[in-house]
Amino acid sequence: MNTIIKNTRLFWQGTLLSYRALFAWLRPVTYMASKIIMPLAQMFFFVFLGTYASGGKNASFFVIGNAIQITSISGIFGVTMSVGGDRDAGTLPYLFGTPANRFMIFFGRAFMHVIDGAIGVVIALTWGVLLMGLDLSRTDMPALGLTILITTFSTCGLGLLMGCLSLLTANVMFVNNFVYFSLLIFSGANVAIESLPAWMQVVSNILPLTRGIAASRALVGGASLNDILPLLITELGIGLIYGFVGYVLFAWFETQAKQRGTLETV
Amino acid sequence: MNAIEVEHLRRVYRAQIGVFNRSIKEVVAVDDISFDVKQGELFGLLGPNGAGKTTTIKMLTTLLIPTGGSASIAGFDAVKQATDVRRRIGFIFGGERGLYWRLSGDDNLRYFASLYGVDPAVSKKRIPYLMELVGLKGRGNERVGGYSRGMKQRLHVARTLLHDPDILFLDEPTIGLDPVGAREFRSVILNLQSQKKTILLTTHYMFEADALSDRIAIINKGCVIALDTPGGLKQHVSDLSVVEVETFGTSEEALGKLRKLPFVDALSVEDREQKQMLLIQTTRGAEAVPDVMNALEGQRVGSVIVREPTLEDAYVRLVGGAA
Ligand SMILES: Nc1ncnc2c1ncn2[C@@H]1O[C@H](COP(=O)(O)OP(=O)(O)OP(=O)(O)O)[C@@H](O)[C@H]1O
Ligand SMILES: [Mg+2]
Hints:
By secondary structure, chain A is mainly alpha-helical. Chain A is built from eleven helices and no strands.
């Protein structure tokens, strides 16, 4: 029992500190901007563009899509920084020189971003309600909360994989931007999936977010938790798969770096 | 049981050269190294740049897989039982990198304590103690990004003591420290030594190695070329004395003449601001001075001293004047 308490405290301590060490914006102002202003800008842009192109009735389609997609700021950029940041800090030898459980290190790095990403979505939805006429009166709120959490989790899974890539090669921010903007389209945030070409639909189906956005739209439209449960379970599974592949890559990176002597090459 | 046992350790790096026509070049960083370090011993590892010291330490600290040979640390195999080894060792690779600059000093220590599984209740007491030990008391809540280089190195020392390891690997820990800082650092090392910690130290400061080490291995080109106590190493050059000549802008020609003198075993030149120190190793002692002065005719010469050889002289002879 005591060891469980001790290990939980250790996990928390490590998780919080690594979040601050590798990610947290240098100043609260920058953080607030990324949490409050940036989602607003993105939502305005796509909601106006989208309703202009497809008619005003569709506003909630874009509001929900973009609000949920906001989670990938944390899930993709944040997690990548948290996993890949050790490379720039020169801390990899000191990190891998500890006996710490690698599984804990790895998933600990994403933990705070799940919470952070979920908060981002809530803020974005609030903008939607306040400024863009989003109507949540028919929505099962606990179910929406669960959907947000699971979607954020699965996006972080993809982020973990991206983070590992950033350990392997230096230029991942470029790839990250590419992934972020791809998600704007492939996830169905701004385009109905059915209207995408077949090959793009295949990509949509193996990405996180897609089912989370669909589930959220259904919930806002009045669906029950039971209706969207299959979507949620698949979304969760996708996240777990990405996270697991990321972890395998992380373990592989450590072995490779020790074999080739590349632990501190930037 | 010895704290550290190294047997025929070898490491070859495969470096890719050329961007377009990729070819692989093999670098033998550590060729064949064996030595033992007893419990509680302070063992110095000396050698010229590129000799393979850091590579050796990386293998002993489980961060690099050897190409051949084996190492056991506290009785555990450095490859097969890496986690057991990691629990019992601390290590520093000199310099200021390897800390989280966005976190405060205390938070850096808290984070590494969590990675080493130190109970938060224990680290709460231990962190202030260590900060005081390394002379950072009162600076713990400042961000490490604002620390000076020396402060960062001190923090590394505190970091590596968090889990109270029995064996420490210190790779050039005093590099870039000011003289007072380096001296304080040495007193920390002596303090650790008095706590019966086993320490493996590399340094390019010979007096430091001389003052601290119980035994020293000198390695060159990936092989141990001498292994003895500091006194024992100096015995290698007990036949020698050193003539130190202070000069001001000596010509190459004069240096050439000096080198040709039959009794000059080795000559090295150290630049010290406007002047230079010529260090001449000779078996002739003071009798060599008149001939040396002859060879330097026409040059501006300051003081001339004849002294006993130091560890540095032994090192220079062993490494072959290349250092
Ligand atoms: N990651 C690496 N990849 C390829 N070659 C390497 C790598 N690290 C070191 N080497 C080579 O291995 C040799 C030994 O290097 P090492 O760093 O062990 O020397 P050292 O004794 O620590 O030197 P110094 O006193 O300069 O720190 C050098 O020739 C170096 O170029
Ligand atoms: Mg070195």
